């Protein structure tokens, strides 16, 4: 399996020379954005602009250090995270960093709160999401969630994580050119750059460029070349902001419009399904709801 080398950073790394980091062989970067509600890392915008400008081959993502005490609190923190990160077109995942449980939630409560956070972030940002936990949290405080797992377990790189995960943070004392002090080092076991739009594009054959996109990144994402993208779009200008077509599995398809509803206290899926002339099963499928009885006020779901 091919692996990729990455780092995660915050204001603790101070001023970073991102050009040097890129040339040091780093494939991806994860940047601290927010914590709780109301705190934005003081170096977040500087780090995001600097890292995105270097076009790291396996993407740049952001993470939120959670202080979740309930589902309602998780939704509030998720909304804050989305509001702060929406300025940037991150190509890596938006991550829930879950390391504390001061409210002493049980496994079911903490898992439900984490799922609420991740569902809201994925829906509102249309980016991939992931969960960061250390091995102790993984083993004792939370059930498995169906998102990529970023696991912290510090030990020699040659030993591997010892737990199935998508990204492994193996040390907090790494050294990388362009960063003056120690930095967290990570290994990714696969491509972490795919966004929801990219996944749709692979199936439907058409992609609309977003702010921050480059043809080199699009070419890598869709396993083609810059020359082929230019030919398919009948353009000789690599900076044209138009639909960039690629060789997908099917021809381009229209995207249907959807209707969403924010759940209120006392709502049930059966009542919502009845009002919207659909079924509970369909609502569960659209919104990836495993247990029809586990919905909560403030949750935004697709109903058509």
From TrEMBL:
Keyword terms of this UniProt record: Glycosidase, Hydrolase
Q: Under what name is this protein listed?
A: Lysozyme
Name the domain of life: Bacteria
Query: Which Gene Ontology terms cover its molecular function?
Result: lysozyme activity
Enzyme Commission number(s) of this protein: 3.2.1.17
Q: Which SMART domains is this protein grouped with? A: Glyco_25, LysM
Look up and give the organism this protein is from: Metabacillus sediminilitoris
UniProt keyword Hydrolase present: yes
Q: Which InterPro entries match?
A: GH (IPR017853), Glyco_hydro_25 (IPR002053), Glyco_hydro_25_AS (IPR008270), Glyco_hydro_fam25_subgr (IPR018077), LysM (IPR018392), LysM_dom_sf (IPR036779)
GO terms classed as biological process: carbohydrate catabolic process; cell wall macromolecule catabolic process; peptidoglycan catabolic process
Q: Where is the LysM domain?
A: 259-303
KW Hydrolase (keyword) present: yes
**Similarity section:** Belongs to the glycosyl hydrolase 25 family.
> Region Disordered: what ranges?
235-254
Catalytic reactions of this protein: Hydrolysis of (1->4)-beta-linkages between N-acetylmuramic acid and N-acetyl-D-glucosamine residues in a peptidoglycan and between N-acetyl-D-glucosamine residues in chitodextrins
Pfam families this protein is in? Glyco_hydro_25, LysM
Ranges of biased composition (kind: Basic and acidic residues): 238-250
């Amino acid at each position: 399996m091919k692996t990729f080398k990455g780092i995660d950073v915050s204001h603790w790394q101070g001023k970073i020379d991102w050009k040097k980091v890129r040339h040091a062989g780093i494939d991806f970067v994860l940047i601290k954005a927010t914590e709780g509600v109301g705190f934005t890392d003081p170096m977040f915008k500087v780090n995001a602009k600097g890292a995105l400008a270097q076009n790291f081959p396996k993407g740049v993502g952001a993470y939120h250090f959670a202080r979740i005490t309930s589902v309602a609190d998780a939704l509030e923190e998720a909304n804050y995270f989305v509001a702060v990160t929406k300025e940037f077109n991150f190509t890596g995942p938006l991550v829930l960093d879950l390391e504390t449980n001061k409210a002493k939630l049980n496994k079911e409560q903490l898992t439900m709160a984490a799922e609420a956070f991740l569902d809201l972030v994925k829906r509102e940002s249309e980016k991939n999401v992931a969960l960061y936990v250390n091995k102790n949290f993984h083993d004792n405080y939370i059930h498995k969630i169906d998102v990529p797992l970023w696991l912290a377990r510090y030990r020699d790189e040659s030993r591997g994580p010892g737990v199935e995960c998508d990204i492994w943070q193996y040390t907090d004392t790494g050294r990388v050119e362009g960063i003056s002090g120690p930095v967290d080092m990570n290994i990714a076991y696969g491509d972490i750059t795919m966004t929801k739009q990219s996944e749709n594009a692979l199936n439907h054959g058409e992609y609309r460029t977003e702010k921050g996109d480059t043809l080199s990144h699009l070419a890598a994402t869709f396993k083609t070349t810059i020359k082929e993208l230019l030919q398919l779009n009948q353009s000789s200008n690599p900076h044209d902001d138009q639909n960039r077509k690629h060789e997908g599995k099917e021809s381009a398809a229209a995207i249907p419009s959807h209707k969403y509803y924010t759940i209120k206290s006392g709502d049930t899926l059966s009542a919502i399904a009845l009002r919207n002339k659909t079924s509970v099963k369909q609502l569960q499928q659209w919104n990836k709801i495993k247990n029809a009885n586990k919905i909560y006020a403030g949750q935004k779901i697709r109903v058509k």
